[in-house]
Amino acid sequence: MFVSNLHIKSRFQIILFLVLITAFLPIITSAQTKEVVAKKGDGIYSLLKRYGYSVTETMEDFIALNKENLGKNNTLLAGVKYKLPDGETAVNETTAGKTEKPAEGTGKTVRYEIFGKEKADVPIESNTLNGAIYYLVAGHGGPDPGAVGKYNGHTVCEDEYAYDVTLRLARNLIMDGATVYIITRDPNDGIREENYLKVDHDEYCYPKQTIPLNQTKRLRQRSDAVNALYKKNRGAFQRMIAIHVDSRSQGENIDVFFYHDKRSDTGKKAATILKDTFQKKYQEHQPGRGYGGTVSDRGLYVVRNTWPVAVYIELGNMNHERDIKRLIIPTNRQAVANWLAEGLIQDFKTNK
Ligand SMILES: [Zn+2]
Question: Could you tell me the distance, in angstroms and rounded to a whole number, from the CA of residue 290 to the centre of ligand 1?
Answer without folding.
Answer: 24
